[in-house]
Design a protein that fits this description.
By secondary structure, this protein is of the alpha/beta class. It contains seven helices and nine strands, in the order E-H-E-E-E-H-E-E-H-E-H-E-H-H-E-H.
């Protein structure tokens, strides 16, 4: 059976989104899975392209039907986000290489059920990582300390589970994406330029 599902994970600010975007840009048969959410649609977004937009009740119904494979709930905003099975199944049926950005629970699920190859994108050096995170959103030293501790725990406890760990140093996105591509080819994925 041809391998089609890939997980790209990592802490906030590690560059996992950029790696996924780079692979999708390079290969005509690579697509990013579209997740489901209950947050309001923003200007310029389209349902089924940006996200699969649902109400909280619809989202919970989809969980009960087994169509939400992993999810998290943001209590502050009363919002759900999750991996939508019909989306991933449709992309597989069309012969696509499906790239998923998931937390560890979802990564384990797709590894088991879709034979996914999993990658953990490692953030750059501590100082470069701090500069990258602080450039994205202003935060206090206390908020940074909390973020840094969370990231340290992710790297220590979760990263070893993934099949591959890829460093994404500042200014070296192309190299990080190429490492992922080289591994996917070795793993038997059929990427088409």
């Amino acid at each position: 059976m041809q391998k089609q599902v890939v997980v790209i994970a990592g802490p906030a600010g590690s560059g996992k989104d950029s790696v996924i975007q780079e692979i999708v840009k390079r290969f005509t048969n690579a697509e990013r899975v579209v997740t489901a959410t209950t947050r309001a649609m923003r200007p310029g977004e389209k349902s089924g392209i940006s996200y699969h937009f649902m109400t909280n009740d619809q989202f919970r119904e989809e969980i009960e039907k087994g169509n939400i494979l992993e999810y998290y709930y943001r209590e502050k905003t009363d919002t759900y986000y999750g991996l939508y099975k019909p989306d991933i199944e449709d992309r597989i049926a069309r012969g696509k290489v499906v790239l998923c950005q998931l937390q560890i629970v979802g990564a384990r699920y797709v590894k088991e059920h879709y034979d996914a190859t999993t990658f953990f994108i490692m953030p750059p050096s501590h100082d470069a990582f701090e500069a990258r995170i602080r450039a994205r959103a202003p935060m206090s030293d206390e908020e940074w300390a909390e973020r840094a501790e969370f990231t340290r725990r992710e790297i220590e406890k979760e990263a070893p589970w993934y099949d591959y760990r890829i460093a994404n140093e500042d200014g070296k996105l192309q190299e990080a994406a190429q490492q992922v591509v080289d591994i996917l080819v070795k793993e038997g994925y059929q990427l088409q330029s």
